[in-house]
């Protein structure tokens, strides 16, 4: 089993990796994404799995005939800009390796098994996270999805069409959902809770509510050397105050808030900007707290913009409510992968996942693999090979249990 995982991991690892940073750029419908999808199709075919792509671009590899009450596992292959190797791919590689492990054990599934790859989970190119699973479940309208644009103004519809798929067919897919009896996603932990607990594995209890907001500050472009400070309508100033306000609001509410992406126009060294566009990512233990954080940040943005003669605007680009994974399935998974000391640790996460989106429609569970540094969405993201192998065995244990169940 370890050889299988290592071979699969080694074959995928070079795809989309940046020589300068060591991070990954696998954005949806780009050459790197196409190469990663081809790798998955080939690896699945090597295992005799039947590969199909649904109307939304998600990939499915079936062991047995596609049908109702299937046990489904998998994750995603796309990345954030200069992201780490493990976020998403660990779940896909582990799922394929778990299929080999199940066959080595002589498991004969009593129900179908599928390995899936969801498209645009990170939202790095088109701005909405978990887009493939949102489309599948109807959590986003086809019209809005088709109109999403990347930084170059390319729409989702155009990019999807150029990849050979029909964007007019995207949208909720009840028949595909009906085939999923249960979904289990294995993922690297994005934090160090398991390190502190001394455990290689954990099970998710909940996903914090989270969302993304776009913040626009529109001022007046002018000369940096000749325009008096008193005569300026500089949008960079209220933007800067908003960045600090995000940190203060998050600290005050025991939440997290980040402004990690910004576009400045015209972006000249010797020019006062005419517009600053920024994106806020905010997450909290409950929705009331999250709204309070965002309200405090946007209120500061409006006040600061007014003082500097700048026009503010804010737009919610995506929102995911709190997800509580089903207690019975969570406890069953924790017991299955636990050891002599008892069930595996159960912990919440502030990171969004396709499992969180699917949880509104089908029974869903998540397994976490220990991350010694706690770093994620960065090249230093890492899991020890031994822990990865433990994760494959644990996932195989869970799948075997579910495949045998009525």
From TrEMBL:
Allantoate binds at residues 212, 270, 283. InterPro entries: Amidase_Cbmase, Bact_exopeptidase_dim_dom, Peptidase_M20. The keyword Cell division does not apply. Its cofactor is Zn(2+). Keywords: Hydrolase, Metal-binding, Zinc. Belongs to the peptidase M20 family. This is Allantoate amidohydrolase. It comes from Marinitenerispora sediminis. The lineage of its organism: Bacteria, Bacillati, Actinomycetota, Actinomycetes, Streptosporangiales.
């Amino acid at each position: 089993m370890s050889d299988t995982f290592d071979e699969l991991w080694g074959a995928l690892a070079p795809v989309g990796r940046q020589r300068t940073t060591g991070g990954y750029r696998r954005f949806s419908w780009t050459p790197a994404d196409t190469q990663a999808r081809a790798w998955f199709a080939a690896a699945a075919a090597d295992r005799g799995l039947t590969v199909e792509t649904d109307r939304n671009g998600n990939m499915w590899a079936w062991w047995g005939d596609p049908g109702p009450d299937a046990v489904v596992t998998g994750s995603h292959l796309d990345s954030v800009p200069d992201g780490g190797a493990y976020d998403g791919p660990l779940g896909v590689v582990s799922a394929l390796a778990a299929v080999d492990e199940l066959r080595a054990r002589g498991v004969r599934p009593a129900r179908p098994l599928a390995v899936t790859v969801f498209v645009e989970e990170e939202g790095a190119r088109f701005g909405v996270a978990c887009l493939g699973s949102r489309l599948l479940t109807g959590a986003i309208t086809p019209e809005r999805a088709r109109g999403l644009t990347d930084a170059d103004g390319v729409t989702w519809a155009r990019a999807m069409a150029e990849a050979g798929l029909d964007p007019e067919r995207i949208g909720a897919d009840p028949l595909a959902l009906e085939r999923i009896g249960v979904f289990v996603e294995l993922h690297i932990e994005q934090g160090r809770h398991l390190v502190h607990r001394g455990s290689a594995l954990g099970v998710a209890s909940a996903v914090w509510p989270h969302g993304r907001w776009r913040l626009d500050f529109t001022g007046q472009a002018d000369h940096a050397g000749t325009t008096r400070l008193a005569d300026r309508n500089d949008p960079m100033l209220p933007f800067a105050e908003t960045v600090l306000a995000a940190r203060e609001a998050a600290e005050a509410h025991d939440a997290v808030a980040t402004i990690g992406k910004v576009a400045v126009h015209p972006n000249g060294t010797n020019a006062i900007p005419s517009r600053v566009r920024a994106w806020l990512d905010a997450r909290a233990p409950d929705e009331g707290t999250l709204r309070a954080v965002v309200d405090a940040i946007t209120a500061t943005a409006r006040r600061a913009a007014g003082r500097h003669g700048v026009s503010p605007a804010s737009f919610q680009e995506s929102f995911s409510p709190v997800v509580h994974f089903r207690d019975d399935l969570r406890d069953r998974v924790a017991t299955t992968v636990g050891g002599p000391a008892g069930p595996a640790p159960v912990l919440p996460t502030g990171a969004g996942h396709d499992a969180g989106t699917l949880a509104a429609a089908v029974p869903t569970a998540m397994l976490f693999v220990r991350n010694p540094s706690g770093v994620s969405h960065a090249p230093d993201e890492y899991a020890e090979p031994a822990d990865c192998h433990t994760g494959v065995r644990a996932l195989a244990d869970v799948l075997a249990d579910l495949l045998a169940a009525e």
